[in-house]
Write a structure and sequence with these properties.
By secondary structure, the protein is mainly alpha-helical. The protein contains 5 helices and no strands. Helix 2 packs across helix 3.
Length: 118
């Protein structure tokens, strides 16, 4: 691994840690806004107090299902879709290689023939 790759991996890990800290801080803020202790929150989410406390302090591993339950208890599940935006379809090589479409040529309008009088 070269120096760039090592620095890049470290930067990603620091960014990941900061994202987790921000998430946990926001969960804590929402819990406190409800005026719930960690023990009360753990009871509502059906976790042990120690498991929830470790989660909120950034220790241990909480499953995705439990995270969704925590967010559900806080009324934040509607925000989950914002975590991963919909994928935007990129043009494929085949589409890029297709010839560009051109407008159809305008039809020539022929002048009307004068009507003959009888």
């Amino acid at each position: 691994m070269n120096e760039f790759e090592s620095n890049h991996d470290t930067t990603l890990m620091q960014g990941d840690r900061e994202a987790v800290r921000t998430l946990l801080s926001r969960v804590r803020q929402h819990r406190l806004r409800h005026n719930w202790s960690q023990a009360e929150m753990a009871r509502r989410v059906h976790l042990t107090r120690a498991t929830y406390q470790n989660f909120e302090n950034g220790y241990g591993n909480l499953t995705l299902a439990n995270l969704v339950r925590v967010l559900g208890v806080l009324g934040l599940t509607n925000n989950l879709a914002q975590l991963v935006p919909p994928a935007v379809e990129e043009p494929t090589l085949a589409l890029l290689m297709q010839p560009t479409r051109q407008r159809a040529r305008a039809k020539c309008v022929q002048p009307a023939k004068p009507e003959r009088s009888p």
